[in-house]
């Protein structure tokens, strides 16, 4: 029974609770989070790690007057429970339910929409600057993880904050983990272990040296002992932030209410930029998540008693797994092959690669821009880098792709995972803009495999190609296409006619090919005979095949899981217009709005991108009666508790 949580009417109530009651509240919040995430899936370990921190923040600061700006926002479940969302919490991440991330439209306590990392310091600094222009007095607090701090964007924020000298509090939630163990010089610097090890070693060596000096050694030793405290201060992470103009407080034990509350209260009285360094444990309070925080970072439904993950849609292998395995094969055969991830080792399927080829694997931290330019450097010196990246996160590195890779025509492969609708993470994570933000870049070849066998061919083609090459594939399982044999390169820009038809032609790309084939089959029963073409490449398009079919049938339907603006359908329109060919054209894709969260199936149905939706759109367009099609576009009703 969540008695304290259930009776919490506002965050003001927190100020009346004793430390013992706060601890009970923390337990209740953890139970609630575990129960809900075990049913719905979600970001468990990060949220469990900041339960005490969230309670302490809401006790000391007065949200929504004071602003708490969460970075990434995947750790904000306790914040949601504390700010009036307990009753709806069971709808977390479901269609029509609570978002898995802070969202301004969801609550006045969510002051900045988020999902991508490392935005909190910049956003909070903007709010602080606006407050000062308005003459306001509210406190602005950014809460950023040690993983998110590895991004250049976070440092751009720190840099300006120190310069502007605004009243701003940055809480560094340091659990020494990104999704995987955190990487890089910064993470070693922050690490308590490193600073204390280094300190102890220096101390030992100095004592040794001085003890062996016959005359002045003893005097110098006592002097050195007196210098010990300042040396200790010099070696703590504080010196980094102080260098940026911040006051540094910490490290504070992030699971002790007495320490946390006192430190936050003290900091709330300071003026100017202050950083409070809080040490937490990812997964705190739930043994399976503490033992394996990477697995429980973002997890599907699981058994809360055992922590065992429930079986998903079985059967076929995931695109990610096929990608990871194929890249290992390529690396075995070609010593030039190297792989780069921006903190998404597991998510991009590079685990096996990193173990087999540690010297050819780079996790650069949450630094997509750097990942791409770093790849350009590797390619300049004869290597064949693959940047494995989620489509949505590559948005960060548009100019690096254009300026550092494509302008120099460098052989960098972009393996874009999570292309299309990703599901429960929602609008911040759907990879539905990459066709539009990449296809206009000169030199770039862009292939979109329709199944996992073609993904392997895309990878072989990328490796054989002497220039920038992108391929995108979706979240989840493949179609079960046979994978035997080594993958062979295919001719650049060559499409495939997959189905014959007389009345029109569907040009479908990527995951939409299977849906288009099913739709064409259903429409055949109404007497409409449609050909289906997979261009295989978004760029270059197979001019001959596409124009030939368009001229022959006079009716073109394009289908894509991308924004219609600037996407595949737009590319087809350009091709037709440039060739002076004018068939009737229907474009099916994502509308000019951000698509919400839900399961991939729900969202495809919602957007008319499943077979039933494609059938309906074509029926309307050609004036056929809308006979019920199998799985007829019914989208589940919004989740309720
Ligand atoms: C730009 C961007 N790249 C990658 C991610 C994927 N991602 C989400 S959380 C996360 C790790 C964040 O680590 P940290 O900030 O330390 O938070 P923790 O989970 O440890 O609490 C990553 C890499 C993202 N959300 N945004
Ligand atoms: C918060 C975040 O950005 C990641 O944790 C992301 O949610 C992972 O998505 P996948 O579950 O598709 O790997
Ligand atoms: Mg962390």
Per DSSP E runs of 2 or more residues, the count of β-strands stands at 17
- Main beta sheet: strand number and arrangement? 7 strands, mixed
The number of helical runs is 25
Helix content: 40-55%
First-last Cα distance: 17 Å
Whole-number count of domains: 3
Rg (C-alpha, Å): 27 Å
CATH architecture of the largest domain: 3-Layer(aba) Sandwich
> Quick check: average pLDDT?
93
Residue runs with pLDDT of under 50 for 5 or more positions: none
CATH superfamily of the largest domain: Thiamin diphosphate (ThDP)-binding fold, Pyr/PP domains
What is the fold-level CATH name, i.e. the topology of the largest domain?
Rossmann fold
Report the top-level CATH class of the largest domain. Alpha Beta
Structural class: alpha/beta
Hetero compounds: thiamine diphosphate, 1-deoxy-D-xylulose-5-phosphate, magnesium ion
Q: Give, in spatial order, the strands making up the sheet with the most strands.
A: 7-6-8-9-11-10-15
Shape: globular
Content of β-strand = 5-15%
Keywords: Isoprene biosynthesis, Magnesium, Metal-binding, Thiamine biosynthesis, Thiamine pyrophosphate, Transferase
Pathway: Metabolic intermediate biosynthesis; 1-deoxy-D-xylulose 5-phosphate biosynthesis; 1-deoxy-D-xylulose 5-phosphate from D-glyceraldehyde 3-phosphate and pyruvate: step 1/1
EC number: 2.2.1.7
Protein name: 1-deoxy-D-xylulose-5-phosphate synthase
